[in-house]
Amino acid sequence: MAELIPPPILFFVLGAAAAALRSDLHLPESLAKTLSIYLMVAIGLKGGAALGTPGASEGLWGALGAGVVLSFLLPILAFALLRAASSLDRETAAAVSGHYGSVSVVTFATAIGTLNALGLPHEGFMPAVLAAMETPAIVTALLLANGAVRRHRNRASGPGAPTPLPVLLREVLLNGSIVLLLGSFAIGWFGGEPARAQFAPFAEALFPGALALFLLEMGLVAARQIRAAPGVLDARLFAFGLVMPLIGGALGLGAGLLVGLSVGGVALMAVLSASASYIAVPAAMRMALPKADAGVYVTLSLAVTFPFNVVAGIPIWIAAAQMVVG
Amino acid sequence: MAELIPPPILFFVLGAAAAALRSDLHLPESLAKTLSIYLMVAIGLKGGAALGTPGASEGLWGALGAGVVLSFLLPILAFALLRAASSLDRETAAAVSGHYGSVSVVTFATAIGTLNALGLPHEGFMPAVLAAMETPAIVTALLLANGAVRRHRNRASGPGAPTPLPVLLREVLLNGSIVLLLGSFAIGWFGGEPARAQFAPFAEALFPGALALFLLEMGLVAARQIRAAPGVLDARLFAFGLVMPLIGGALGLGAGLLVGLSVGGVALMAVLSASASYIAVPAAMRMALPKADAGVYVTLSLAVTFPFNVVAGIPIWIAAAQMVVG
Amino acid sequence: MAELIPPPILFFVLGAAAAALRSDLHLPESLAKTLSIYLMVAIGLKGGAALGTPGASEGLWGALGAGVVLSFLLPILAFALLRAASSLDRETAAAVSGHYGSVSVVTFATAIGTLNALGLPHEGFMPAVLAAMETPAIVTALLLANGAVRRHRNRASGPGAPTPLPVLLREVLLNGSIVLLLGSFAIGWFGGEPARAQFAPFAEALFPGALALFLLEMGLVAARQIRAAPGVLDARLFAFGLVMPLIGGALGLGAGLLVGLSVGGVALMAVLSASASYIAVPAAMRMALPKADAGVYVTLSLAVTFPFNVVAGIPIWIAAAQMVVG
Amino acid sequence: MALHARKRIEIVMEAVRAEQVTAWLDQLGATGWTVLPVKVGRGRQGLRRAGVPGGIFDNVVILCVVSDEVAERVVRHQEELLVAKPAIVTISDCYVLRGDRFV
Amino acid sequence: MALHARKRIEIVMEAVRAEQVTAWLDQLGATGWTVLPVKVGRGRQGLRRAGVPGGIFDNVVILCVVSDEVAERVVRHQEELLVAKPAIVTISDCYVLRGDRFV
Amino acid sequence: MALHARKRIEIVMEAVRAEQVTAWLDQLGATGWTVLPVKVGRGRQGLRRAGVPGGIFDNVVILCVVSDEVAERVVRHQEELLVAKPAIVTISDCYVLRGDRFV
Ligand SMILES: Nc1ncnc2c1ncn2[C@@H]1O[C@H](COP(=O)(O)O)[C@@H](O)[C@H]1O
Ligand SMILES: Nc1ncnc2c1ncn2[C@@H]1O[C@H](COP(=O)(O)O)[C@@H](O)[C@H]1O
Ligand SMILES: Nc1ncnc2c1ncn2[C@@H]1O[C@H](COP(=O)(O)O)[C@@H](O)[C@H]1O
Ligand code: NA
Ligand code: NA
Ligand code: NA
Q1: Neighbors of chain C with 3 or more C-beta pairs under 8 Å
Q2: How far, in Å, CA of B275 to CA of B215, rounded?
Q3: How far apart are CA A318 and CA A119, in angstroms?
Q4: Which of C104, C103, C80 shows the shortest CA–CA distance to C90?
Q5: What's the mean pLDDT in B204-216?
Q6: Which residues in C lie closer than 8 A to residue F24 (C-beta atoms)?
Q7: F92 DSSP β-pair partners
Q8: CA dihedral of C35, B28, C167, F85, whole degrees rounded to 10
Q9: Paired residues of E10 in beta bridges
Q10: Residue C239 CB: number of other CB atoms within 10 A?
Q11: Interface test with B, best of D22, D59, D80, D81 (most B CBs within 10 A)
């Protein structure tokens, strides 16, 4: 039993339990930020170093392409589902669907940690796929919200006008996390084995501990978010938060197979597609679609889909990848 | 000589010296919080993993029972001493005595560090004893302050009314530190050897460094506290801050012997009984006994008893344990 | 190629690029402070431990003396250059020159990291030389600003009056960084091999990772500072920021040779002389010479000289030291 | 035009008790409040510098914009507030945009 | 003597949009402004506690001291301000030393 | 009833000199003060964003509630205050509970 649950995930459960019991446990804000910076750097360095080994870039372009296409298309599916099955207004539905096309770094980090613990290798370029999947979904979401946005633009002179798409894309592409992830990836790749060796005690040995602390924080935040916004999600929205990652994950699994990834790579592709952004996209949607209800999209992605992926999704997709990859 | 003083303690001396010389050395607030979170998690994980080895829970119940009894009774002793020998009012004396029944995590961590450096093993369940000793003393302190509290309760409607006992106990039991310590303990125990190995670079290798930084901060805080509150402690109170940990430690030593702990376990039991809380209990007393003088109890436990225990107490109790345990 | 650029320096480039592209990447303030505390402690501990090995203090006094003399005299040179070639007022020129006599800890740390990566040893006492060079330059700077300061002192009663020299020196000598560096040095020296071994995973294994994060922050800060103060530096001031470290470094190289240091020691002496303070001295100048233009000295030392030293200076001085030391 | 007279209440007090006061403001009918951190403060207790572990020397500033009725209620029930040992309670006049937000 | 009447504008709002408002204040002629962090706040949206990753529940307080003309301009153009969804906008009277700083 | 007229002094200035000002307020007879952190500010010096190592671009807000006499003393001795280069000094009217605290 203990072998099936990677220890860092137990810290997620601990955080959620502490918040549910209304413990006053709090991580300092700057610790959470520091940990997310650390995870980005560690994932990037490791991926870059792995890409440097001979033959490691095989399959890179296929995987990147698959990721970008999924990120563009998943929001359409999510939007259709939401408009059919929920009573969300157009703008909020579009904002929510943007989250599900994009990705969650911590879900990815947890999956990497689990694969490492199981001894399953994966393609070193997957952090680049992660970065590539972050943005396209935002474009789709804004196109889906189209009408609402156009109406808004008339009073675009005041300080609260929605941010126009090109500005927004620039901001998201230059978003701190992406720059850090891709930058560290480039450094790891350029620095090769000497860089890897020099950073190993920092970027590899500390990874499980740092991930555990971050998941603790995520557990606290997710459970508190659920409690802070009790009326925000009705049963249909809640169901969407569980079903959508299953659909996304299945599509990711298929895409991973199609482009010929290894077991670990297919599992990660499924996890990326199943995951929903809760850092970059909420901030972008707050700027671009100010009328969308932030309570809905934050709660759905942070408090429903994230825990579901971490606790159930990752083991499901690893098992599925082991079955489907011959 | 150098072998007798564990290096992390030298950082306590450095911090105290820096503050005494009025250096502007400051650790960011969030670093201090992060370090205390780290110590909790590392102590918990290590204790839990140790408990998982065969036969390791032998003596657990005796030690827990002894700890709880000591935590309940030590405040009575402290209170009697204070009422006899100092001029503190009833409410402040009760608040102070609550601190001495409860425990200090960093004193415990320092003792663990010293035992490790000396190669002396101890029972893995001692972190659980630490957690068990945190709360009972608060109950005793409130009973001792009884009269004062009852008088207060009449205007209990305003926001400053003393917090009632059940609410307070709930809060203290669900206090962030306890949840973190016991949660990590459970995770270490449940995760077993794989979890220990995965977290070792984080939870074990970094322990002396993190402890050193935290003791640096404690040295700064203790010396500044002494200076900030020059008139707060008269000679009798100061003496109390040195004598009470000796009494507590001796009783803890006896209790450890009685329940049949090893040399390391007896030493830790003495250290726990000798130590005074300076995080959880001050906050609880501020809520429950608002009329008690916070300057007195914070200064006594933080600036007198804590340094005394770290510099003199720990070596004393380890030596004593080595003598008394056959 | 990859072997020539130490990987942590790539993080400086990443930070500068992110800021130049106007990415919103930000490190939490307390992380930057924590990293600088860490670097101080790690450098101090390592230097102290190295000093403890037999024969390691040979040459210490010569190096300390050379450092102090350089720190006293370099500002005179810088001041003469600035008065001759720029249009800065007397007080600002004096303030700037104080920065160039003093030293930059992170430049030193980066040089240490590069030497380690190249396998070049250096004298263990160099952190003490670093500490010795921090303050004398401030005295010289105040003497150079003399007239301006005297005029000011007449309305010394208000809260904004310039801080008098003795008070200032006391403050700088007891400045947090110096206390931490020298204190850790003393602890490393006193604790000897057992302390070194106990702290190694913290102070040695994590060093490259922590340095990389700090250089990331420095890259962000330097590039943003350049952009925030576009008109502050004219071409002559900019040239000064590149030429002065070359002059300082050459003098440091000579001094290192003169007192008979090893290749690594000579290189570090050159790096120290070439480097300009951007933490302790700006704060001191803000207090002592309130009329000097802080925009000028911060931008010069942080955004011109620091990057120049990190990217070009360190390799130059290491190569030069290898050539000149027989 | 478009400006409505309201009251600003600002309370400086220790952080550990702030939740009691905000809960009490809620009870008295405040439509909201904002809590700001404090770096350091001096008063009758001497210096209180934020950052001691446990946070017992942290102060906060609570800002609450209210209608005249709620302000009066606060003054009338000040006995209850005073048990929370606020260090400083100031009330001052201000104008707000969108008065409907502070009934 | 040496005191000049001016207006204090204080805006409580979400941190992610604060830059839009400060840029707008610049446009309207404010000579400066100051942004303070908020620990936690309550309003119509419920509790907003700082520190969620991404900062989308962070609030700030923007303080801007202005001349009467600028204050009037702010009130007159408030429609533009309101699209940034400030939670609370208060305007009050104050005196400043050195009035030349707030034309 | 139970309200006493006092003055609120608020000073925005760079953090490194704040201690000089609070010491000076002490000298002039203020019974206390509160220092709040600032995230970012703009003024004649351009943008000052907190967080540069060494803290030299950090600002603070100093809040000091005083009696009319102390406020007058502050205005009268403002020359001394101005050498500390406060960016903004505002004084406004307010009412406090428990006036005995601000003699
Ligand atoms: N006159 C005052 N003006 C502004 N803040 C004050 C004043 N007096 C006290 N404070 C604040 O209230 C806190 C507690 O005050 P006290 O309970 O009097 O020590 C102090 O640490 C200051 O932050
Ligand atoms: N009456 C009020 N007084 C002070 N601050 C308020 C008030 N109402 C709202 N706020 C602040 O404004 C933020 C957003 O308000 P809202 O948009 O109404 O949720 C809250 O989180 C509080 O920080
Ligand atoms: N009109 C203003 N209103 C509010 N804060 C201001 C104003 N002008 C300046 N400040 C603040 O004072 C700081 C220093 O101003 P200055 O010295 O003019 O650059 C700025 O960074 C702002 O935080
Ligand atoms: Na996705
Ligand atoms: Na005890
Ligand atoms: Na230099």
Answers
A1: A, B, F
A2: 15
A3: 12
A4: C80
A5: 95
A6: 158-159
A7: F8
A8: 110
A9: E63, E90
A10: 15
A11: D80
> What does A87-145 look like in DSSP terms, one character per residue?
---HHHHHHHHHHHHS--HHHHHHHHHHHHHHT----TTHHHHHHHHHSHHHHHHHHHH
C47 near C126, Cβ under 8 Å? yes
Q: How far apart are the first and last CA of chain E?
A: 18
Q: Are strands E59-66 and E33-37 parallel, antiparallel or unpaired?
A: antiparallel
pTM: 0.90
Angle at E80 between CA E78 and CA E85, to 5 degrees: 90
Classified as helix, coil or strand, F65 is strand
d(CA C102, CA C112): 18
Choose one of D10, D11, D21, D42 to mutate for the ligand 1 pocket test, by most ligand atoms within 8 angstroms of C-beta: D42
| Residue B240 · residue B85 · CB < 8 Å | yes
| Dihedral, CA of residue F71, residue F73, residue F79 and residue F80, to nearest 10 | -100
Q: Who's near C237: CB < 8 A, 6+ residues apart?
A: C86, C88, C296, C300
A303: amino acid identity, one letter: A
Q: Pull the structure tokens for residue B86.
A: 């100092």
Task: Choose among A132, A136, A90: nearest CA to A289.
Answer: A90
* One-letter amino acid of A326: G
pLDDT tens digits, one per residue of C49-78: 988 888 888 899 999 999 999 999 999 999
Rg for chain B (alpha carbons), in Å? 19
CA distance B105 to A299: 36
Least confident of A79-93, A143-157, A270-284, B204-218: A143-157
CB B184 within 8 A of CB B26: no
Residue ranges, chain C, pLDDT below 50: 1-2, 148-149, 151-156
Ligand 3 atom closest to F38 (CA): 23
What is the C-alpha to C-alpha distance for residues B244 and B98, in angstroms, rounded to an integer?
A: 12
Closest to C270 (Cα-Cα) out of C212, C319, C326? C319
How far is Cα C247 from Cα E101, in angstroms, rounded to an integer?
Answer: 43
Percentage, residues of chain A above pLDDT 70: 94
Structure tokens at A30: 């700057």
Amino acid, res. A110: T
- Nearest CA of chain F to the CA of E91: how many Å? 12
**Helix H or strand E segment including E23:** helix E18-28
Strand segments, DSSP code E, in C57-114 are none
What amino acid occupies position A132? Answer: A
Ligand 2 contacts CB of residue E36 (under 6 A): no
User: Does the distance separating the beta carbons of F52 and C160 come in below 8 Å?
Assistant: no
Find the radius of gyration of the CA atoms of chain F: 14
Strands (E), chain C: none
Contact F17, C159 (CB under 8 A): yes
CA distance B282 to B131: 16
CA–CA gap between residue B58 and residue C103 (Å, rounded): 58
Provide the β-strand partners of residue D47.
Answer: D42
* Helix ranges restricted to H, chain A: 7-20, 29-51, 60-85, 90-101, 105-118, 126-134, 136-152, 165-173, 176-200, 207-228, 235-258, 263-274, 280-288, 294-298, 306-308, 314-324
Closest listed ligand to the CA of E36: 3
Distance CA C171, CA C142 (A): 15
Helical (H) or strand (E) element with B78? helix B60-85
Of A120, A252, A130, A241, nearest in space to A181 by CA: A130
Least confident range from B289-303, E89-103, F66-80: namely: E89-103
Mutate to test the pocket of ligand 1, among D59, D88, D90 (most ligand atoms within 8 A of CB): D88
Most distant CA pair in chain F, distance: 49
Check CB contact under 8 Å for B209 and C199. yes
